[in-house]
Amino acid sequence: MRELSPSINGLMSLAAVVEHGSFTRAARALGVSQAAVSQQVRDLERVCGLPLVVQHGRLLTTTSLGKELASIGRSISLESRRAVKSISEHADGHKGHVTIGASMTIGVYLVPAILARLQQTRPGIQVQIEIANTEAIAQATVDGIVDVGVVEGSVKRPELLIAPFAQDELRCIAPRGHGLRGRPVLLEQLAAETLLLREPGSGSRETLLDSLAARKFSFAHVVEIGNPEAIFGAVCAGLGISWASELAVAAHNTATIEQLQVDDLRVSRTLCYVRRRDLAPSPATLAFLNLLEAGDAYHRAPELATTVR
User: Which pTM value belongs to this model?
Assistant: First the structure.
């Protein structure tokens, strides 16, 4: 048996002819010339070796095979429209998938609010989130494991575009009832305290140690704790003091911790997102980034208004 290769356009044209009852009306519905529709149907008949439509004056009848192929053509037209709709939804960011990497503080206290807004405005976007420290998220972005990384520490990777979007202050936190609460404090007055410090690779750790080094100050007693929530638990338990993001401090019950006003030490950092230089962000990723930059869960400094896409 000879191999048959019916044209998809021919099947769709046949379906339109059968649906509208004439070549003229079919051509108008398809937005092409009548000659083009007639040619596609005749070409399809030649491939089949059998008639599909028969013209009797103004009356158009469809053969048994013509009806079957017209039904297939209608299905193809429907699937084609569905494909166009799907492409459009993905292209404008209403559907798709995005994997977001976030450093620990941002992943716990900032990104969830952004994702809630994304779910409300773009429910068709599927999201996966990976949480680790800044160093690990930068590496995951380079490796292509995540589409975009949102971090609070310094990132120096030539493979990545780095876009600042907000400022974050680190606040000194101490156990409830601390003796230095409620009044201005100088850094030297904290020298006898135990400092609770995040693990190497943490943006919070790097920012705090850089600020202390600039003041030529160090703590004699340091305990490393590799999780921001564990830091708060240790402070509440009276193990020591620490510096934590204002995002995290705002989320905790002030009945369990004190904020100390350290007048001679300001600990501030820039929040950034990072992505691969060699990969354009998908529409779904851009939808997330638009909400991230427009977010009101943090202070967005005017000097950070321009970012790199």
Answer: 0.67
